[in-house]
Amino acid sequence: MPEIKKVLVANRGEIAIRVFRTCRKMGIETVAIYTHADRKAPHVRYADEAYCITDSPADTSYLKMDRIIDIAKKTGAAIHPGYGFYAENADFARACADSGIIFIGPSPEHIELMGSKTGARKAMMEAGVPVVPGTEDPVKDLEEARKVADEIGYPIMLKAVHGGGGKGMRLVEKPEDLESAFRTAQSEALNAFGSSEVYIEKFIVQPHHVEIQVIGDKHGNALHLFERECSIQRRHQKVIEEAPSPFITDETRAKMYEVAVKAVKKLGYYSAGTLEFIVGADQNFYFLEMNTRLQVEHPVTELITGVDLVNQMIRVAAGQELMYKQEDIQRRGHAIECRIYAEDPTNNFAPSPGLITVYEEPGGPNVRVDSGAYQGYEVPLYYDPMIAKLCTVGKDREYAIRNMRRALSEYKIAGIKTSIPFHIRVLKNETFLSGNYDTGFIDNKFDMEDLKRRENEDVTVPVIAAAIKQFLSEKIAAERAVTRPDVGESTWKRSGKLYNICNRLA
Amino acid sequence: MPVKRDYYVTVEGREEEIKVDLEEKEPFLYEVEIDDQKYNVDFAQINEVVYSLIIDGKSYAIEISENGNNFEVIVDGDNYKVEVLDEMKRFMKMRASAALEGRQVIEAQMPGYIWKRLKDVGDEVEEGETVMILVAMKMENEIKSPKKGVITEIFVEASEDPNESTVAIGDKLFIVE
Questions:
Q1: Would you name the residues of A annotated as active-site residues?
Q2: Residue A337, beta-bridge partner list
């Protein structure tokens, strides 16, 4: 059985540090890679060894496969891909295997299978996992469309086979609307994509995004680590995640756990993974996709279970059995995660890279911060805007949220804009607090103007603060003007200046 | 010796101007008068942006960013843009804005690089029409004209190489008149 003594993380930022932390705890040495833009990044200093992967200053990518493999070979390290970059790249996993490097993740075949939308859907159907009802092939004509729609029930969605980005999509709520919608979708598809082929999918009303964290080993063991609710999304990007889901019933969650574990065993999947589901208002759930990696939101699961997922991934990659049986995994309390992005929520979430001049993390009981930032760090222009993840836990949802509000108010980041004010607003929103929110929350239930609106319209505090600050700035400027012996300025002139300033301030 | 100052303060989104009389009693202890209401204030700077403010015994931890006479003040997650002027600066500002009426300078609201320019000097633009595209953190951001008019000046070149067309916050992009 191979032993892992050193781990290279083919990634940057908070996730690199996250993996390194577990390695250090396990007595495993760590290797960082970095680009010129990231020379001062914290993951570089955290690791035992660090190697630059770029050849020129202008190159800012972490996608230098040969160079990464080369460094891993030279240092004798296994590779953990984190998330993003090479995390779900079957070629990379295969290249590691071909070079005799342990890849801390699933097999290339599993990455490939789950990376294919149709392949994953087929594999899951075979494993008994419910998928969104609909046709896999294009429907021939209106008659067939009508037959399929009647079978799966309205509302349905017509989608262009070669489409994407929402184009060529038509929602049909009742049978009498099908004919005209079908013709329109066909003609839109033809105009936009050069093919009139459309297929049918059931439309899920008030969809929730609920995912099941799973982990398997190479000995046929598999278990679930409960679910996460990830319905708070903006532009299809998750913003807040929590566990357990405040929406699904115990009956639904038991069914979801069962099918997820069964699927992992049937697939022979090993390493950490996540089955993403769409859950309708009627509690019916359907498979969306499987992420074959450690996810951004994994701390939420770690907080409610106490399981270190990276530790288990490393054990599994080394060929060991999982440390836990299903009955060992107990759920304790409620956890919530806010992703802190370098974005300006009051300016339509415009990216906000730059120098962090003040950085104070929150602390106290039941708070976890996974961060790749520090005071004096310059957030680069080139990468994803996420700079930290703030997680809190409480005995129940209400306490976890209260703890998060407290932690957000303690988080001080200056120099750049962050999504913290947005999180504060969401955590005060009635719909969010009720727990009855779906993926349409930000578009339908959250007023962006709310970010600009103040809870307390009494502006006394900001007015007093700004006035005193202005006064102090003038005072400092006046003192400097008096004490600085400017070159070429006569004593008489300086005396005159002093006289004027004193008069102005008096 | 106590020092007194009078200011005219405007808060973004509010039309009325607030007259503030400020008197420094001792270093960092102030008496502030707004609309005949007097407040005793203890003001302490904690770090570059974090301040402790005690107003009549009530404690606030606030953040202040300063840019000339403009301040951004964050109180409990609420963001306030505040301008503080003395009488002279207020007069100068009114005179300048009268002179520049109709002319608008568009500045970069975020750092990034200008990837594409869709308009040239002399082109007519409609309100909301895209003039250039600024890329930051892998996202394209359309820089639009805030009003109908003619582009009279453009300050930046466009390039697909981020190093050749980088802009910082506050850099002038173009003028529409």
A1: 293
A2: A241, A391
